[in-house]
Design goal:
This protein has about 350 residues and is an alpha/beta fold. Helix content is about 40%, strand content about 15%. It contains twelve helices and eleven strands. The longest helix is centred in the last third of the chain and has 32 residues, at about 315-345. It binds guanosine-5'-monophosphate and manganese (II) ion.
Length: about 350
Amino acid sequence: MHRAPTQGIFMTDNKYSKIIEVIKKARRFVVVSHVNPEGDAVGSLLGMYLGLKGMGKEAVPYLEDQLPPLYDFLPGSKDIVHTLEGVKDIDCTIAVDCGQADRLGDNFSSFKEKGVFLNIDHHVTNDNYGDVNLVVPEASAAGEIVYDVLKAAGAEITKGIAINLYTAIHTDTGSFRYSCSTPEAFRKAGELVSAGANPWDISVKVYENYPAARFKLLGRTLSTLEFMNNGGIAVMHVTLEAIKSSGGTKDMTDGFVNYARAIEGVEVGVLFREVKNNEYKASLRSKGRIDVSGVASLFNGGGHAHAAGFSIKGTLNEVKAKVVAELEKALNEQSAGQASRLSNEGTR
Ligand code: 5GP
Ligand code: MN
């Protein structure tokens, strides 16, 4: 039976109508996403940018950080700018895939000509920093929400947009493995493939095209593995020296933390990446027993139940001790809760 394309399930929410109204009215846009950009950030940014252009709007795609070279293949990527100097008369700025305004970057925060500030995101920890906020935690990727918004605004989903939004969903679902791989995510991905996104082509470009230096760095990083909490927590670290001596760059560490979580018996994988002396970027990955976005929030970070992160100051040993203590607490509270639920069930 032929099934007519439905509107996204999220579209029933009238939060969308305000966003669509602003987008339809505005003429000049800035589109922005977070520092340390990854697949969903870049794909959503460029999908929105190309959609706006297709609707006859002017748009500037902005990222504070350089684009990791592996995303150079994304249509529109060469238009990304890293400064907003001289950009003015903007009617509307759209942030995608970013839970906290400060993650858009220090330079972006001094950009005063935002116009109406739209916040389109899927992080549960989003703090609603926009003038209008469209936060949909059920969406696997910000790319899903961008897709719904563009369709509702009447944009044509071109091949270029499809490649970007498919990449966003593909990367944020861990290639359709994570628990956020809902029927809706698969349905949209299917529509994007129909619109011209080629899954194998995109997979090769994102996952089978790494510079050799990444594997040297991965080898170094795996050799730092330590286990805590009877093997329930696996911790690794990357130093600036390791990045330099392997000939790599910081963005190559994206995905390393998954190796720590992938070990039998491990509930939470942790990666500490040195940013500068006595400052680390922490990445947390949970198999599901605990919500790591809650732990990340304790350190002024955020994310999702299974994947979260934050920045933290101190020596490696200090940050490790602090973070592991919070994770152990969360794991212990979860076990205690489960034990008491089980004993209650036993008395029924
Ligand atoms: P990653 O560990 O890959 O950097 O990030 C995992 C998840 O946590 C992503 O959804 C990301 O947006 C979020 N995240 C990572 N670092 C930070 C941070 O410093 N602050 C906040 N609020 N979220 C973060
Ligand atoms: Mn995302």
